[in-house]
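FORM 12-B: Structure-to-Sequence Request
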């Protein structure tokens, strides 16, 4: 079972992730990497709820985690469920925030990425996560001769590449800023603890 402190960290991290996603990425149709990126593509193209798609995409990954590594399963399940719920919870407030603060596409991509990266970094610093492509990369690294961080980077590139092809070239370029700022934020949050870069949903 997760401790009360870890649950508090997961909730705080989830709100940061939800704020970055709803208030900065979605209004500019910018993507992030990982399962969040897949969910954002589904939202932009099919108008599906982001949190719902995250849960849907995470089901096979968490089934694999249950079979292969129960500790990772328990440390990631709460983060995935709570962050998905909070993302959909804050979605109706996008318009209210935009009326107060609406930066351009690149600043929005950088701020959104930084908020998401900080939220994920706080979780990683406290031995929690949101699972997603982190777990998939962890399992794939056992079968392919690549570092986990490289696998995550490749998956991120594929996701924003698909998103750029489906949406626009601007989406692809702006999404690079999201991934870079998110990676820096996660790295700073986990620096003292020596975590590897495993930051995506």
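FORM 12-B RESPONSE
SEQUENCE OUT:
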């Amino acid at each position: 079972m997760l401790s009360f402190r870890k649950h508090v960290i997961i909730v705080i991290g989830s709100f940061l992730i939800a704020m970055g996603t709803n208030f900065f990425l979605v209004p500019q149709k910018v993507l992030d990497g990982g399962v969040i990126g897949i969910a954002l593509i589904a939202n932009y193209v099919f108008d599906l709820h982001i949190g719902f798609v995250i849960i849907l995409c995470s089901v096979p990954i968490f089934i694999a985690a249950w079979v292969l590594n129960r500790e990772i399963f328990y440390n990631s399940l709460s983060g995935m469920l709570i962050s998905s719920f909070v993302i959909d919870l804050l979605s109706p407030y996008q318009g209210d925030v935009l009326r107060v603060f609406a930066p351009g596409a690149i600043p929005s991509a950088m701020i959104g990425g930084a908020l998401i990266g900080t939220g994920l970094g706080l979780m990683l610093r406290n031995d929690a996560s949101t699972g997603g492509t982190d777990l998939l990369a962890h399992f794939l690294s056992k079968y392919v001769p690549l570092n986990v961080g490289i696998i995550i980077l490749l998956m991120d590139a594929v996701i924003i590449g698909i998103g750029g092809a489906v949406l626009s070239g601007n989406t692809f370029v702006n999404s690079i800023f999201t991934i870079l700022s998110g990676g820096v934020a996660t790295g700073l949050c986990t620096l003292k603890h020596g975590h590897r870069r495993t930051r995506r949903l």
